[in-house]
Amino acid sequence: MEQQLEALGVRWTTVCRWMEERSVALTEAASRWRVFSERLKAFVAWLTDTEDVLGDIERRWTRDGVSSLDESVAEVHDVVEQVQCLKVCLY
Fold first, then answer.
1. pLDDT (tens digit per residue) in 17-29
2. What H or E segment, with its residue span, contains residue 20?
3. What distance in Å separates the CA atoms of residue 75 and residue 61, rounded to the nearest whole number?
4. Which pTM was predicted?
5. pLDDT given for residue 38 in this prediction
6. Residue 79, exposed/middle/buried by CB under 10 A (0-12, 13-18, 19+)?
7. What b/e sequence results for 16-49 when a residue is b if at least 16 CB atoms lie within 10 Å of its CB, and e otherwise?
8. Which whole number is the average pLDDT over 32-51?
9. Cα distance between residue 53 and residue 56, in whole Å
10. Angle 13-18-20 from CA coordinates, rounded to 5°
11. Cβ-based neighbour number of residue 75 at 10 Å
12. Cα–Cα distance between 9 and 16 in angstroms, integer?
């Protein structure tokens, strides 16, 4: 009986250690998920804004013709710079 209790104690210690390791791993995963989720929300917001800007450019081109081309090219250039900056910030 004493050996069985000792074996049970060893098994219980192993289970407790395993639970603690899993708890740490899950906490780290949850933290990484929160960071990812925050970055994703920021990216989606930026993407939505960029789509709006590009949509405005497209509407102006069809409305005004080529007269606003220089202004639109400058705006597209700004968007490209933002994308490059975003790539640097994410990596």
1. 999 999 999 999 9
2. helix 2-64
3. 13
4. 0.56
5. 93
6. middle
7. eeeeeeeeeeeeeeeeeeeeeeeeeeeeeeeeee
8. 92
9. 5
10. 95
11. 16
12. 10
- One-letter amino acid at 38 equals E
Q: Scanning the structure block, which residue is given the tokens 């990812």?
A: 36
Q: Quick one: pLDDT band at residue 81, thresholds 50, 70, 90?
A: confident
Assign 1 to helix, strand or coil: coil
Average pLDDT, the chain: 85
Identity of the residue numbered 20: E
Task: Give the domain ranges of the chain.
Answer: 2-90
- Tell me how far the alpha carbon of residue 3 is from its chain's centroid: 52
Summarised one tens digit per residue, pLDDT across range 53-69 is 888 877 777 766 655 66
